[in-house]
Specification:
single chain; 4 helices; Rossmann fold; 5 strands; five-stranded mixed sheet; 163 residues; alpha/beta
Length: 163
């Protein structure tokens, strides 16, 4: 029996110079150290930077700070349905406003249009508290990093088990 390893990309999006906006890179780097089947393609400044890096990936996990009104440090996992039409992927939490130039749903649409969409895309969001200029995560976001890492590692193990 031939064993194939799943292609998993982990991307932290955001800027380490805007406090909690840097949580994506922190989580992605920790995940890359904790797993052997993961490639950390971040940190990325914006979702558009994913284009061309996720071709034919079995799983792409995007980690980013969120501003949904939840309690700071709340970790949310949102799976985007890449097989649905554009109307489906633009509803719900995945359409929340982004501080980045083009949002993730826009990148998904573009990737599909040019035949570069991954098989599965999951967003792990950590509710931020501080987005002003400066370095370092707020206490509530820093405390959520282990949970976010754990959630990403669980997603990777699911994919690896099926490969």
């Amino acid at each position: 029996m031939v064993s194939t390893e799943a292609t998993v990309l982990v991307a932290g999006i955001g800027s380490e110079y805007r406090h909690d906006d840097g949580v994506g890179a922190v989580v992605a780097a920790a995940v890359a150290l904790a797993t052997t089947s993961t490639r950390d393609v971040g940190p990325l400044g914006e979702p558009l930077d994913l284009l061309g890096r996720c071709n034919d990936a079995d799983l792409v996990v995007v980690i980013d700070a969120t501003r949904s009104g939840a309690t700071p440090g709340t970790v949310q996992v949102i799976e985007l349905d890449l097989t649905a039409g554009d109307d489906t992927i633009t509803r719900g939490p995945s359409r929340e406003s982004s501080s980045h130039g083009i949002g993730l749903t826009g990148v998904v649409r573009l990737a599909r249009a040019v035949g570069q969409a991954p098989r599965r895309l999951v967003v792990v969001g950590v509710e931020g508290e501080r987005f002003d200029v400066g370095e370092g995560l707020s206490q509530s976001v820093a405390a959520a990093v282990p949970e976010a890492v754990s959630r990403v590692v669980e997603l990777i193990r699911e994919v690896d088990a099926c490969a």
